[in-house]
Specification:
Keywords: Ribonucleoprotein, Ribosomal protein. The structure is a single chain. This protein has 117 residues and is mainly α. The chain has a domain of 80 residues: Alpha-Beta Complex (50s Ribosomal Protein L17, Chain: A), CATH 3.90.1030.10. It has five helices and no strands. Helix 2 packs across helix 3. The longest helix has 21 residues.
Length: 117
């Protein structure tokens, strides 16, 4: 039987994302790690530039890249994309900024959306 190639179903990112999450220590465990990632992605969208250590920055970069690329691909009319944006960006203004400011800016971009220096 012919199997579908899953990599064609999910849009490719322009960066290499490690399939396993990094072991970032957090006293609240896995839930605390994800909350920290949500705050980091929110800060990145809000301030456009943040300073982090390299492990946290590399981990958050994958989440931010996926969020922006899915927003470009699906748009703000898609219900699942809207729910994902509201989950990752807790502030309503940042959801608006994602769809109205960042998507038009990056929709014709050929490079990655985030950079780590």
């Amino acid at each position: 039987m012919n199997q579908a190639d899953v990599s064609r179903l999910v849009p490719r990112l322009r960066i290499r994302v490690n399939p396993k999450p990094r072991r970032l220590r957090n006293p609240d465990g896995q839930e605390g790690r994800l909350n920290k990632m949500r705050q980091t992605v929110l800060g990145l969208i809000k301030y456009k530039r943040i300073e982090l250590n390299s492990n946290t920055a590399d981990e958050a970069r994958g989440y931010a890249e996926r969020l922006i690329s899915d927003a470009i691909l699906l748009g703000d009319k898609d219900r699942s994309m809207r729910e994902m944006a509201e989950h990752w960006l807790e502030e309503k203004q940042m959801v608006h900024k994602l769809f109205k400011v960042l998507v038009p800016r990056f929709e014709n971009s050929t490079a990655s959306y985030t950079k780590i220096y």
